[in-house]
Write a structure and sequence with these properties.
With about 80 residues, this protein is mainly beta. It has one helix at about 20-30, and strands at about 5-10, 10-15, 35, 45, 55-60, 65, 75-80.
Length: about 80
Amino acid sequence: MSGETSLHIDGRLVRVKAGTSVAAALRIADGMGVARTSVSGQPRAPFCGMGVCQECRVRVDGRGMLACQTFCAEGMQVETTA
């Protein structure tokens, strides 16, 4: 894959290489990759990278998804709970 993909993460425009996972885009966007906060307010980020731990839950275009299992698409709207 070649080229770039533009998406919005929590309203902020982020450009990544085509084929990038949403989890990687989160890391590119904020330097930490935080997808959500725990019930106690601690930042949570992808851990396992294969969809088992569920730490990377985000909303993509209004639907609940796992960031590590979702590839970025042009114009995608990603919302974290961080």
